[in-house]
């Protein structure tokens, strides 16, 4: 009586190269389908991922969704800007908005500043600031506009008629509108109308290769705010952000969602409940540098905002050979399937059994005839030698 195989033995019997190949094919197709779904759902532009989503890792470092954030030291930053200047390009950053945007400017300039380079103040407006590094052909400006007013719209229109508009514009405001209206929701309609006036100059600047970011308002820490900001709540901030998203989503501006997420993860570290602490400002600076520099630096670490490299000759040849192999395989499979479907069985061969192969052969010569479907193979043994004839 033959003992039945146990469950483990049946499982072990299924572990073979054929099943492994099937599983590998299924996994490859599943991963390819998953990544294609992500590209359809979220797009294939890693700069959009950098500016839209991310999370904090265990060491409180920021990790964007779908790509890697390269950490720029001061040496890396100056190397990037020097490389851009070498090709005759000027780097011009502008931060325009309220005191929160000013904090972003100060964090960004603090990362760039060298001892021999100072920040200058224009005489026309004591609130405006500018940082210039002539060796790097670098200019970083801050312009004080706490409201989306006619003056801000005119500033954008002045930039659009320049031969060399700013490389990057980081804009954002809303805090002062909440404060001066004492938290009234009626002012949101005026805020929305003024946002629509920015769309035309923003689109025109985008056509001239300028990058325009709109920094969404970060949440506040109510426990640390002074009495003059008590009317500012996170509910009001969400309403203003909603208005900005509804209007600017149809323009060429990049909505900087990740700046809000960075602040939200460290809102407890805010020194006054309104402005960012030094660590989230450093994360925002790294995001801006990755957005601007990665495509020039060509890091091989999956960094965000890196353009796809051009195909090499070896890659094209390899892909062509692989394509030919796939076509031949599919053709052979269809050929066999069609013959089987029409009732024309393919040629089959009958192998000699192990017993026949190992059986002793008596006499000086003998012969066996193996009958296949269409041929007869005559196999002769003569004095220990093997000969075949058809």
From TrEMBL:
<keyword id="KW-0808">Transferase</keyword>
<keyword id="KW-0472">Membrane</keyword>
<keyword id="KW-1133">Transmembrane helix</keyword>
<feature type="domain" description="Cas1p 10 TM acyl transferase">
    <location>
        <begin position="297"/>
        <end position="356"/>
    </location>
</feature>
<dbReference type="InterPro" id="IPR012419">
    <property type="entry name" value="Cas1_AcylTrans_dom"/>
</dbReference>
<keyword id="KW-0812">Transmembrane</keyword>
<feature type="transmembrane region" description="Helical">
    <location>
        <begin position="314"/>
        <end position="338"/>
    </location>
</feature>
<dbReference type="GO" id="GO:0016740">
    <property type="term" value="F:transferase activity"/>
</dbReference>
<protein>
    <submittedName>
        <fullName>10 TM Acyl Transferase domain found in Cas1p</fullName>
    </submittedName>
</protein>
<dbReference type="InterPro" id="IPR036514">
    <property type="entry name" value="SGNH_hydro_sf"/>
</dbReference>
<dbReference type="Pfam" id="PF07779">
    <property type="entry name" value="Cas1_AcylT"/>
</dbReference>
């Amino acid at each position: 009586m033959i003992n039945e195989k146990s469950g483990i033995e049946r499982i072990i019997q299924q572990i073979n190269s054929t099943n492994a190949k099937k599983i590998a094919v299924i996994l490859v197709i599943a991963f390819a389908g998953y990544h294609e779904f992500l590209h359809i759902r979220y797009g294939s532009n890693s700069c959009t991922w950098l500016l839209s989503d991310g999370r904090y890792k265990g060491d409180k470092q920021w990790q964007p969704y779908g790509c890697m954030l390269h950490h720029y030291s001061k040496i890396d930053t100056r190397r990037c800007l020097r490389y851009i200047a070498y090709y005759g390009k000027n780097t011009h950053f502008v931060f325009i908005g309220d005191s929160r945007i000013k904090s972003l400017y100060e964090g960004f300039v603090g990362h760039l500043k060298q001892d021999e380079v100072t920040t200058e103040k224009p005489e026309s407006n004591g609130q405006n600031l500018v940082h210039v590094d002539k060796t790097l052909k670098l200019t970083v400006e801050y312009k004080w506009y706490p409201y989306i007013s006619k003056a801000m719209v005119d500033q954008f229109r002045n930039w659009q008629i320049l031969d060399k508009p700013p490389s990057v514009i980081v804009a954002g405001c809303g805090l002062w509108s909440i404060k001066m209206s004492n938290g009234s929701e009626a002012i949101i309609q005026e805020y929305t109308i003024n946002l629509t006036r920015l769309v035309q100059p923003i689109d025109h600047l985008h056509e001239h290769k300028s990058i325009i970011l709109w920094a969404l308002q970060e949440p506040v820490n109510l426990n640390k705010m002074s009495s003059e900001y008590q009317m500012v709540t996170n509910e009001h901030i969400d309403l203003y952000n909603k208005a900005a998203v509804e209007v600017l989503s149809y323009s060429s501006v990049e909505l900087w969602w990740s700046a809000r997420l960075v602040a939200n993860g460290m809102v407890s570290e805010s020194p006054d409940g309104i402005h960012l602490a030094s660590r989230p400002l450093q994360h925002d600076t790294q995001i801006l540098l990755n957005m601007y520099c990665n495509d020039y630096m060509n890091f091989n670490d999956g960094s965000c905002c890196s353009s796809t490299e051009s195909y090499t000759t070896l890659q094209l040849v390899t892909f062509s050979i692989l394509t030919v192999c796939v076509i031949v395989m599919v053709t052979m499979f269809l050929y066999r399937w069609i013959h089987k479907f029409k009732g024309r069985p393919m040629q089959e061969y009958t192998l000699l059994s192990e017993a026949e192969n190992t059986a002793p052969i008596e006499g000086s010569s003998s012969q066996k005839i193996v009958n296949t479907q269409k041929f007869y193979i005559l196999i002769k043994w003569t004095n220990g030698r093997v000969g075949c004839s058809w």
